[in-house]
Amino acid sequence: LILFSTRLMALFTGASVGSHFAGWNKEYVKIAWMGFVTQAGVSMGLAKEVASSFPDWGPSLENLLVSVIVLNQLLGPPLFKAALIQAGDVHPSKIGTPKKAKVPIFLDLAGAGDESEEES
Predict the structure, then answer these.
(1) Which of 10, 11, 41, 103 could, after both became Cys, cross-link 108 (CB 3.0–4.6 A)?
(2) Residues 69 and 75: beta-carbon distance below 8 Å
């Protein structure tokens, strides 16, 4: 948990400082870090590589890294969703499955399933 918390603080600090210097709106500066929490693919591979390259202490470090990666995977998506809502890119009332979608969301490139949203 110490490594996980330290990583979150580093993400918060780095994203806040970077977005502040980039001249972002204050509200974006506060939430910029939330999109960076989730990560897994390359990290899992590197953890496995450490375990095989250093047989004495590598497996212990691999266990620690995998634990932190799992925590990041659990906390990352809700934080990213919260960041999108706070940034105004997604409205909380519009999140979820549409009631009468004829086309799956990922295939609805033309926005055909959005007819009811225009009326409100």
Answers:
(1) 103
(2) no
